[in-house]
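Weekly structure sync, notes
Attendees: PL (lead), two postdocs, one rotation student
Agenda item 3: pending single-chain targets
PL asked that the sequence for the first pending target be pasted directly into the notes so everyone works from the same version. It is reproduced below exactly as submitted, 76 residues in total.
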Amino acid sequence: MTTPTALASRIHQARIAAGFKTPDEAAIKLAMANEAYRNHEIGRHAVKPAELRRYAEAFRVSHGWLATGVGLGPAG
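Predicted structure, written out during the meeting:
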């Protein structure tokens, strides 16, 4: 099981590697509220499975890597 802090760190890493300079850019791409996305990236709120899948697709990493740290992570 992963900790909220570790998950938040992977979300942050994946966002940066995918070329989104700010959390707000990612939120726009994901069509979600900026604050909701930021709360996930800093580990303040839990991430639902459907949101995790959306992040994996948008950031081009595997769902498994985001969830556990094992699998296809960011390329850069």
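Discussion points:
- The longest helix spans residues 4-17.
- The domain at 4-65 is CATH 1.10.260 (434 Repressor (Amino-terminal Domain)).
Action: rotation student to compare against the earlier draft before next sync.
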